[in-house]
Amino acid sequence: QVQLVESGGGLVQAGGSLRLSCAASGRIGIYALGWFRQAPEKEREFVVAITWSGGSAYYADSAEGRFTISRDYAKNMVYLQMNSLKPEDTAVYYCAVTKSWCPRSGCAAVTQYDYWGQGTQVTVSS
Cα 18 from chain centroid? Predict the structure, then answer.
């Protein structure tokens, strides 16, 4: 079992920045950790994933160039730095863990992931 605790969400103006954190604990056998988001009345959407040991990242087009994922391996922490935020980024952001290997595109699938955090609300005002 893996427990994921997210933090860092809040209200920010368009063009601003926010940093989300995800702390992982429990039985750790993680291959990759991903960030997903879900806006009201919409499906959960892939944002970015990072391999746990190697730190290789895979970004959705919507995140590339604005968002940066990083991890502190020793602390079991993963971060999502979000810059140049837009109102369209407003959503509940979730971190998730997969213990199974996934190809680059496969790591973007919701169904790939075994564990999910509770989500943290990000609201971007215009």
Answer: 13
Distance from C-alpha of 18 to C-alpha of 35, rounded to nearest angstrom? 14
CA distances from 83 to 2, 7, 51, 104 (A): 29, 17, 22, 24
Cα four-point dihedral sign 65, 63, 30, 8 = positive
CB 112 within 8 A of CB 97: no
10 Å CB burial of residue 40 (0-12, 13-18, 19+) is exposed
Tens-digit pLDDT profile for residues 17-69:
999 999 999 877 899 999 999 999 999 999 999 999 999 999 999 999 999 99
Residue 59's contacts (CB-CB under 8 Å, 6 or more residues apart) are 47, 48, 67, 69
